[in-house]
Write a structure and sequence with these properties.
Blueprint (H helix, E strand, L loop, with lengths): L1 E4 L6 E4 L2 E4 L2 E4 L4 H6 L8 E7 L5 E7 L7 E7 L1 E8 L10 E7 L5 E4 L3 E7 L4 E7 L8 E3 L20 H4 L4 H4 L1
């Protein structure tokens, strides 16, 4: 598995080795031992999937507050997304900075988002499916949703009027949360 670091400590792009032949392809999308050798030690407890019908669907920015924070291993199993992680760890040198990576069914890339980061994505085509592992169970009482267009982050999503859920459309700014 290839591992590329980003400017945010702990946020890494993983690309599994893909074996192609006349039938199609095969890849190992998760290997706990291989990730541990890369310094990613998580006990993933839940797998989540989402489907978005239309291009320009934006989901995020989401996280869970302590003590229920979640690390995520995100992949796009159909279509293409721009996947975004925002560092909201106050003691981090990259506090309030963001990174974006295109994940697709074709490039097989995955984004590891550590605890203490917000996460979101926007679909870059129709009929998109995203799968991700988390290392803590969902807790509605600890759910955090921040405005996707919060100027404190200045994220370039590449879309001006995304398709949003009611929850995301009504999210608070980071300053209102902290």
């Amino acid at each position: 598995m290839d591992c590329v670091t980003t400017k945010i400590p702990g946020v890494v792009v993983l690309t599994p080795r893909v074996l192609d032949d006349a039938r199609g392809w095969f890849c190992e999308s998760y290997n706990k031992k291989a990730l541990a050798q890369l310094g990613i030690v998580c006990d993933f407890v839940q797998d989540n999937r989402s489907y978005s019908a239309k291009s320009g669907t934006l989901r995020g920015l989401h996280a869970q507050a302590a003590p229920c924070e979640q690390a995520k291993l995100v992949s796009c199993t159909r279509g293409r997304i721009l996947d975004v992680a925002v560092d909201v760890r106050r003691d981090s040198p990259t506090y309030l900075q963001w990174v974006a990576v295109e994940l697709s069914a074709e490039n097989h890339k995955q984004l590891f988002v550590p605890r203490g980061c917000l996460h979101g994505f926007v679909t870059l085509c129709d009929d998109v499916e995203v799968a991700y592992k988390v290392d803590a169970f969902y807790s509605a009482a600890h759910d955090v949703t921040v405005r996707w267009d919060d100027p404190v982050f200045g994220i370039d999503w590449g879309v001006e009027q995304p398709i949003l859920s009611e929850k995301d459309a009504n999210a608070l700014s980071w300053e209102e949360i902290v």
